[in-house]
């Protein structure tokens, strides 16, 4: 059982429809993180750094969970922008149409390029004599782009669909 709690302050929570609180996909996040993402940038073996590793895993999982569950707020904004359009699909409980309505491929492409660039800029090894080595990064920037393409954005959209399906309850 994965229990990573998100703490939104009270005023933020009131922006959402109350049933939004019941949406929690931390189990899916745990699964892709441990089974698919970690093997992309770790090597098998035991370096003995258990405490540091656990702390870093926890930070990553919390950051991912927060980012993905923010989809509730994005969905609320989208609903308020076009209530009629979304309501028709919600009344029909049509998740596929909701998914189409809330998807913006051009934005997704921009996000992927931006996170890859960020991983290049902030993931450089900086030494005194050599500020920034363009060849060596702490994490392969293309994996960061893939992380968003294959898991972060799809799961953010899943949260949005789940939220919208219950938005008129
Ligand atoms: O920007 C939006 O409209 C979002 O819903 C966020 C997001 C994302 O996760 O970054 C998700 C779906 C869209 O297709 C584009 C981007």
From TrEMBL:
Catalytic activity: chorismate = prephenate
GO molecular function list: chorismate mutase activity
Superkingdom classification of source: Eukaryota
Record EC number: 5.4.99.5
Ranges where the Chorismate mutase domain occurs: 50-160
Keywords assigned: Amino-acid biosynthesis, Aromatic amino acid biosynthesis, Cytoplasm, Isomerase
GO CC, any one term: cytoplasm
Gene3D superfamilies per record: Chorismate mutase, AroQ class superfamily, eukaryotic (1.10.590.10)
Compartments where located: Cytoplasm
GO biological process: amino acid biosynthetic process; aromatic amino acid family biosynthetic process; chorismate metabolic process
Alphabetized NCBIfam families for the sequence: CM_pl-yst (TIGR01802)
PANTHER family the UniProt entry points to: CHORISMATE MUTASE
Listed name of the protein: chorismate mutase
